[in-house]
Amino acid sequence: MKLALIALPLLMLCAPPLAAKPADFARVLADPARSADNRAMDEGRDPADVLDFAGLRRGDVVADYSAGGGYYTELLASAVGAKGKVLALVGPRYYKADPWDKLRAAHANVTLIVSPNLDLAPRSVDMVFTHLVFHDLFLPPRSGETPPSAEHVLANWFAAVRPGGHVIVADHAGPAGDVSQIAGSLHRIDPAAAQAAMERAGFVLEGKSDVLHRSADDHTLRVFDPVLRGKTDRFVMKFRRP
Q1: CA 70 to CA 111: how far, in whole Å?
Q2: 228-240 residue pLDDT tens
Q3: What is the DSSP letter of 162?
Q4: What's the distance, Cα to Cα, between the start and end of the chain in Å?
Q5: Model's pTM, two decimal places?
Q6: Nearest-angstrom CA–CA distance, 134 and 183
Q7: CA 207, 210, 211, 212 torsion: positive or negative?
Q8: Do the bridges between strand 125-131 and strand 110-114 make them parallel or antiparallel, or are there none, so unpaired?
Q9: Strand 161-172 and strand 234-240: pairing?
Q10: What is the tens place of the pLDDT at every residue in 31-49?
């Protein structure tokens, strides 16, 4: 009996962190601290299903890469819980103080990093989460700018994600062809090209989700076209760092 009593707490200490459940995401979405603008985007983004597919665990450290206005940052922060952490990586061009001040006031586990260099430290995160920005890695450079190459960014992710950790890639589906040209003109990427780039970097495809598939989109229009905005066909992939 004494051995059993000793073993129980040891098993509890060794148990993996609990995965967040869809019911948890429903509570996250209902958080009154969320802005009206973010709530308005929920219907087209199906965030509960995306987060469920991601397989977040309580206590995870997640990097929200190119986090924009923090739509997913606050959802990730709630999903990983108080013992988890979210690194919100934002380029200076896209940083707006007011929404981020409000978000960080509501979520103490969010660390905001505003920098032209969005590199992560080696083995510092359990997951890199990217939403509608993966194609940006392949954009033609703007005049006077020398952004890091896609190869550099993906190599940094591979170094930053702990073995067994994951990268979630959700983006606008595009046609096959010149990846840089399509990213620059349509702001899309061919899912096969995205997968190939991740696999060249050393990641292993673990799963795909069609939760954001929209059959009415034929991949020929820019994602900002008023006819299509918010209704694009999107893919979601989960990659593992061996």
Answers
A1: 11
A2: 999 999 999 999 9
A3: E
A4: 40
A5: 0.90
A6: 9
A7: positive
A8: unpaired
A9: antiparallel
A10: 888 888 889 999 999 999 9
